[in-house]
């Protein structure tokens, strides 16, 4: 059993690429993923799971077809399963995602932004 604290800043310093989530921990079937977000993402949905966005640094806007939610550092939002959304960060946002193991970052919309899955840092 690993009894060492996970330091988000130390983990984030290990990669610079935006839109490439890195797994830092697992709890049951859920993964905790750190990601750097910058600019626009793609419209997508996750048919089988909710997705949690926790903003650690910066600002994040999550667009929906009927509006948007804006998040600052220290805030979180749960996107319900099946809801189409598109994250956007003006500048860089550092975010912690919580989702089941195996969830692809672009959900049902494969694109050049689709990241390799289950990459640990």
TrEMBL record:
Ranges for domain Cupin type-2 come to: 40-98
Gene3D superfamilies in UniProt: Jelly Rolls (2.60.120.10)
Q: What SUPFAM superfamilies does the record tag this protein with?
A: RmlC-like cupins
State the superkingdom. Answer: Bacteria
Task: Supply the Pfam families for this chain.
Answer: Cupin_2
Q: What is this protein called?
A: Cupin domain-containing protein
């Amino acid at each position: 059993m690993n009894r060492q604290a996970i330091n988000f800043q130390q983990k984030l310093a290990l990669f610079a690429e935006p839109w490439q989530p890195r797994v830092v921990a697992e709890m049951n079937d859920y993964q905790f993923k750190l990601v750097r977000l910058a600019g626009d993402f793609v419209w997508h949905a996750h048919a089988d799971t909710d997705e949690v966005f926790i903003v650690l640094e910066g600002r994040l806007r999550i667009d929906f077809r009927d509006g948007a939610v804006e998040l600052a550092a220290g805030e979180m939002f749960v996107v319900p399963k099946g809801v189409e959304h598109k994250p956007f960060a003006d500048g860089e946002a550092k975010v912690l995602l919580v989702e089941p193991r195996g969830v692809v970052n672009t959900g049902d919309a494969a694109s050049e932004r689709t990241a390799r899955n289950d990459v640990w840092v």
